[in-house]
Design brief:
About 55% of the residues lie in helices and about 15% in strands. By secondary structure, the protein is an alpha/beta fold. Strands 3-2-1-4-5-6-7-8 form an eight-stranded mixed β-sheet, sandwiched between helices. The structure holds NADP nicotinamide-adenine-dinucleotide phosphate. NADP nicotinamide-adenine-dinucleotide phosphate binds next to helix 1, helix 3 and strand 6.
Length: about 290
């Protein structure tokens, strides 16, 4: 006789909840059971994506309607996680039953948000898949190979890591006290590239570079810098005045940028200081 799969309840079933639950269902490692969102219609629509026609799965309207499950994924927006954990703990206390495992997928928040459940003896974790989830269908197709940052109780991480690995996730551990810095690093690695690109394009246009040339510059420079960083690492890929230790060029350019846009100049100066550090150059020009 086939063994029953562990059950998964979902609170929140948007891009991340649908993607993970769909992948686990398709892989046959978890059985999706109850799905709660802000409206039963969106929970039903989510179930159609996750496990269409699954006999044991259902959309519910309230936490009180949710059956006990082995694993609970709180895939709600970050600002809702603590309140959901508190409400779930109240529900669990009223129902009794064995402690389960609960986790959320926030990159910036730790498993400490799930403390009301941990206080009931549940094991808790956060599991941050480092992927931009555009929509569930796209993310299901893109998920294989996604790095997944695991943080929380060892019991929870020991259960979740094989589940993420089963759907192609590449798990690594982050200490609870490092979660904020870990996420700030992800912001540094991804979010500022578009900001710098936008600034560069504004400046090119301000100097009269035609639109078609701006697009060409965008494509050529970005592709080459990504290729070089991947092939050589960031330090070796660094070029420009800071890499050469050319303090005079940095100062002249910063002054011109300041006349064009003072905020951009502050960024230019701060990033040049960091670039000098990364390049192993002196932070100040040599004294005459
Ligand atoms: N999006 C990403 O690229 C990404 C990447 C990594 C990690 N994450 C993390 O994944 C988590 C979920 O993000 P997401 O992008 O999947 O969010 P989302 O697409 O906005 O979906 C949020 C879901 O939560 C439901 N919801 C909101 N408040 C609720 C409440 N009080 N009770 C029950 N359900 C509630 C929504 O219900 P309705 O469907 O009715 O609106 C929706 O189903 C967050 O912690 C986020 O930081 C996101």
């Amino acid at each position: 006789m086939a063994l029953a799969l562990p059950t998964l309840n979902l609170i929140g079933a948007g891009r991340v909840g649908q993607t993970l639950a769909r992948l686990w269902t398709r892989k046959g490692v978890l059985q999706v059971q109850d799905v709660l969102t802000r409206s039963t219609s969106s929970a039903r629509a989510a179930l159609d994506v996750i496990a269409p026609g699954a006999a044991n799965a259902r959309a519910v309207a309230h936490k009180a309607d949710m059956r006990p499950a082995d694993i609970w994924l709180l895939a709600v927006p970050d600002a809702q996680i603590a309140a959901c954990a508190q409400e779930l703990a109240t529900h669990a206390r009223q129902c009794g039953g064995a402690p389960a495992l609960a986790f959320h997928c926030s990159g910036a928040q730790s498993a400490a948000l799930l403390r009301p459940l941990r206080d009931l003896g549940w094991s808790v974790a956060s599991a941050h898949p480092v992927l931009s989830f555009a929509d569930a269908q796209t993310a299901v197709a893109q998920f294989a190979g996604t790095p997944c940052a695991m943080e929380g109780d060892s019991a929870a991480c020991d259960t979740l890591c094989p589940l993420f690995t089963a759907i192609g996730g590449a798990c690594f551990a982050v200490r609870s006290q490092d979660k904020v810095l870990y996420h700030a690093a992800a912001v540094l690695a991804t979010n500022f590239a578009p900001v710098l690109q936008a600034l560069a394009e504004e400046a090119w246009r301000a100097t009269g570079v035609p639109d078609a040339a701006v697009l060409h510059l965008r494509e050529r420079l970005l592709r080459h810098v990504v290729d070089n960083i991947v092939a050589l690492g960031p330090q070796q890929a660094l070029t420009g005045p800071a890499a050469r230790g050319d303090h005079l060029a940095i100062a002249r350019q910063a002054d011109v940028v300041a006349q064009w846009d003072p905020q951009a100049a502050a960024a230019y100066r701060a990033l040049s200081t960091l670039a000098l550090r990364i390049a192993g150059q002196a932070p100040e020009p040599p004294q005459a």
